[in-house]
Amino acid sequence: MSQAARIAALQDTTARPGRTVEWPQVNGSPAYVSKTFGVNVFSLKTLAETLPKSVYARFIQQIKGRQTLDRPTADAVAHAVRVWAQDRGATHFTHWFQPQTGTTAEKHDCFLTMKTVFSGGIEETTAIDAFSGSQLLQSEPDASSFPNGGMRTTFEARGYTIWDTTSPMFLRKGPHGTSILYIPSVFISYNGEALDEKTILLRSSEVLSNAAVKLLNLLGDKESKRVYATLGTEQEFFLIDRSLYNLRPDLKITGRTLLGVVPPKHQQLEDHYFGQIPSRVLAALSECELDLYKLGVPIKTRHNEVAPNQFEMAPIFEEASVAVDHNLLTMETLHQVAHRHKLKVLFHEKPFKGVNGSGKHCNWSLSTDQGDNLLDPTLKPETNYRFLLFLVATLDAVHKHGGLLRASIASASNEHRLGANEAPPGIVSAFLGDHLNEVLNSIEENRSVRNFSQPHLQTVKVGGTVLDVKVSTLPTIARDLTDRNRTSPFAFTGNKFEFRAAGSKQSPSLPIVLLNAAVTASITEVTEALIKQKGAKAEPSIDDILSVVRVYITQSKNIRFEGNNYSDEWVKEAEKRGLPNIRSCPVAFRQLLEAKNASLLISLGILTDGELKSRFHILMEKYAKDLLIEANTLKTMVLQGVLPAAFSYRKELTDSLVGQKALGLDFSASPEKSLLDLLTKLTADVQAAANTLVAAIDRINGLEGDEQADAAGTELTVILEDVRSKTDA
């Protein structure tokens, strides 16, 4: 970039007026958030107010899966939602779906239709507003133009979006004061194959519920008819000024800087984390929250993250399928609001080298339709046998299918973050904390739980403790039963597991799908083991339960690790335990096709063999394309920007030395001479590295399929870093 362009961008950032948005008012005061929440959502309450009771009751039975959604009910719902939406300025509707691109897709259709009427024997065409049940239920986008892994071809383009009745419809702002009705949908091919992220999420949720309910019934719980995964996604991101962003082709094209050194002051003073949110950023986040509240997204927290210009927003947990919708809505809304504030939001996991990157911590648990959290240990987990069974089933799932979980968080962008002493490595392990570890160890060893009450011991007292900070004016502080291990990829945090390894840029759908699948299989195994253990008895005894729990504690023990996952010692220890350390994306993606993993997904009905293979090929193809885009961007920047600037600077130094010689000065010891010598060497290094990059791009472009991804992973990643290091020098 030119010096003048950078100066102009900096001047623009300081001279630009801030943007303000009026918060909704009630009697001259800002409205409570609860009064704003969900106003743009077509909720069940709203539907109940607009439909006849009999039609509404029929619809509720249909969305619970107890009967098929019939045409009259669909027509009634379509009419009700059209009137509601148009009364709020809607002109168009769209089936909003999640293709395998990591983002969402939509095609807008107007409510307008034409109707022919006859009046006095004269035919006349009249414009009317209409929205039928069939239009609500499905639409038809082009299936061949989305990633399909070879399942669809251009001459088999038909695909369908189908309304997901479990996720509420909502309104978003359109142009010129209008709005658009969004219909959350799944996306399938003409033959019914899943082409999206949501279909498989709904499938995984259903099989998980069936398995969990069966185990609950065995334990005597006849009330719970459904179990669902809950999810809360902590979304990290960077916000930078748009004027400066526009000067960086690497940021614009790839989402990260491909060259550039860290500034003298970055995060080394540890003063940004939880610091005061900059006023301009706070204004943007507040406006984003307002939009999200209206959409029914329960955003709870906002704060500065570790790296400069890095922030986080996190919601209250919800049912996983809705939580995924809301996370994608959060990302899209952040993007739109940032534009309004002349900012740019960066979701790339590692946009800037030398400072922390961003993750998407997926807080996952299991809940019944009676409101019980199945992973709540309560104060005495050693006697909470239901909790113990679901806990060991989850640990068993992570132990048996850690490769699947590693595949779920693999991407070209997240590869920069994993194992970088800011995120978990490619080794999947679980953290429980001292309390639960002691409980499991005591069961395994068939002894009583130790009560660690001595303050000098580095353990927590079973049943929880309180902290005394020796300040009389402070209240008693309760300490949680588990600590937080920020280095663990799968950490238990009170009443849930935090899957910390997911990347900030990706949809949380695939990690949750594969976690649900693995846990479903283990719950089924635990249930079968418990049935066998109890024998002819109506219900299993406590001894029966503990016998089964003890087996699964022992066989999943290798996955439990309480120490520093960033350390070299853990890498060695994990190898001794037989835990895979998967460092590259192609190796991670191949875990999907491993016999035990493929059998799991196919046998549960979450993916067909064709769907599984297509997803593998899509992931491999995207990985290769991402790296080739980065390589071509860096090639252009070096050849058209860096080297010409170096040549120009070298000419300035040469001209200076020529001038000194013309004056009869001895320039052999001149500072320009030593600088010119160094610059010449560095420039030659960059030129050579760029030539290597160009040759690699040409060679890899000539490859096809999985070979291209493998070559890009082994060659381009190394060459890109080499070019950067030489350029930065």
TrEMBL record:
Domain GS catalytic, chain residue ranges per copy: 197-642
Ranges where the GS beta-grasp domain occurs: 91-192
InterPro entries according to UniProt: Gln-synt_C, Gln_synt_N, Gln_synth/guanido_kin_cat_dom, Gln_synth_cat_dom, Gln_synth_gly_rich_site, GS_Type-3, GSIII_N
Pfam family, one: GSIII_N
BP GO terms, sorted: glutamine biosynthetic process
SMART domains tied to this protein: Gln-synt_C
GO MF term (any one): glutamine synthetase activity
Family statement: Belongs to the glutamine synthetase family.
Protein name stated in the entry: Uncharacterized protein
Species: Blyttiomyces helicus
